[in-house]
Amino acid sequence: MALQTRDLLAVGQVAERSGFATSALRFYERMGLIEATRTSAGQRRYQRNVLRRLAFIRAARNVGLSLDEVGDALSALPGGRPPSRADWERLSRSWKGRLDEQIRALTALRDGLDSCIGCGCLSLKNCGIQNPEDVVASRGPGAAYLPGPLRRPS
Ligand code: FES
Prior knowledge:
- There is one protein chain.
- By secondary structure, this protein is mainly alpha-helical.
- The protein is 46% helix and 6% strand.
- It has 2 domains: 7-112, Multidrug-efflux Transporter Regulator, Chain: A, Domain 2 (Orthogonal Bundle); 114-149, no CATH class.
- The chain has 6 helices and 3 strands; from the N terminus they run E-H-H-E-E-H-H-H-H.
- Bound molecules: FE2/S2 (inorganic) cluster.
């Protein structure tokens, strides 16, 4: 089925609708995360379904996936046709474990930020009980009592 002109969006339209700066769109295109065709005048044109890919990229970045991980995930989508509902379902299934881990970590953070997190500050009264003399320093850098997903370098 041939694409209609109305199905193609200019870079400004994609930026406005997705909330990404045009520079970010060009960057994601260079990284192979999104695709654009060119008009005869060399202007970028995007298929409308690029908005879903961009929404996925934003959500993935917000839960801590690296751009390489985002690229791996998106590469599982079919080329040559817009992803179907089943394609997106398959992709989100592979994401579920990661999201569950993030939810557990954020819940632990919410419930534990008012007590010792093993950061080495020794500033709370109960640090003397949970981290006397900064004994958790031997575990390496970071707040040792925070869940792992919250201690990963960003
Ligand atoms: S909160 Fe920082 S060492 Fe306990």
